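ok new one. same drill as before - structure tokens go in, u give me an amino acid for every spot. 277 of them this time. try not to just spam alanines like last time pls lmao
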């Protein structure tokens, strides 16, 4: 057989597929720029790990002239989390790979990456949903507004000037654009922290997320600083391939072992607002 003959194994190489998926994941995981990525768990045994978690120091208080500013002790605790495995797969016929319309293998890789990315994003949103009462601001009697955002930012205390992202539903965008405090994305003057950024208000880069949906007439919006969330990798995305020699198909599966963790309670605020009619 000629050396230049293209074989099916040349088209579906598990390592190549894994590399392609991992490359695409960098852009596909929306919240990744807000996460600290830790690979210390790779190669270590065990499905449960103890992870650090910083406690919130409490809201700022009024200080009268000449009085001492209260100094709080920053404390850290540990929380046990389980490593999870996310996976998905596709089955391709030889005909679709060798002579199919378009690029079936490329489309399969794209969709595998999107499916893993959406799972990581969903887990990150679940972590934000679990933000405690100390970092929650309830403004659910009125729609999202510049004033509500300003009130929520107080929760960050002396960290309120740092970089941060406000995650909103697409349906909420019009409300913010009407505010005098709204700054268009083209006028922000800083680089966008994450994809989907459409503008800025009160120092928060505003990003749209279709994963934010109203429940019982209330939206949970989130103001998140980089490092609030952490992704702990046990094993990076891996691809495997298996042939069905009877039906002449190839099954490609990918899986990722990881966990997403709210690592710093003081860097994320939940803002509850009313859904507009």
């Amino acid at each position: 057989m000629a050396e230049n003959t293209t074989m099916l194994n040349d088209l579906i190489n598990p390592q190549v597929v894994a590399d392609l998926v991992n490359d695409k994941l960098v852009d596909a995981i929306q919240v990744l720029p807000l996460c600290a990525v830790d690979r210390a768990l790779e190669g270590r045994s065990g499905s449960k790990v103890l992870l650090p978690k910083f406690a919130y120091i409490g809201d700022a208080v009024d200080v009268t002239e000449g009085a001492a500013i209260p100094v709080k002790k920053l404390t850290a605790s540990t929380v046990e989390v389980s490593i999870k495995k996310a996976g998905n797969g596709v089955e391709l016929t030889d005909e679709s790979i060798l002579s199919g319309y378009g690029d079936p293998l490329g489309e399969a890789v794209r969709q595998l990456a999107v499916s893993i990315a959406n799972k990581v994003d969903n887990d990150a949103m679940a972590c934000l949903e679990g933000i405690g009462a100390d970092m929650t601001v309830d403004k659910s009697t009125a729609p999202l507004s510049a004033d509500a955002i300003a009130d929520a930012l107080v929760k960050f205390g002396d960290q309120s000037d740092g970089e941060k992202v406000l995650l909103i539903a697409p349906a909420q965008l019009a409300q913010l654009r009407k505010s005098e405090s709204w700054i268009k994305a083209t006028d922000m003057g800083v680089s966008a922290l994450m994809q989907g950024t459409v503008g800025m208000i009160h120092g928060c880069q505003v990003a749209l997320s279709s994963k934010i949906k109203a429940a019982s007439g209330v939206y949970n919006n989130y103001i998140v600083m980089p490092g609030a969330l952490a992704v702990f990798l046990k094993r990076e995305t891996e691809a495997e391939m298996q042939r069905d020699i009877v039906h002449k198909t190839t099954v490609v599966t990918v899986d990722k072992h990881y966990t997403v963790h709210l690592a710093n309670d003081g860097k994320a605020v939940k803002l509850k607002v009313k859904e507009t009619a």
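The chain has a mean pLDDT of 82. and btw The first strand starts at residue 35 and ends at 38.
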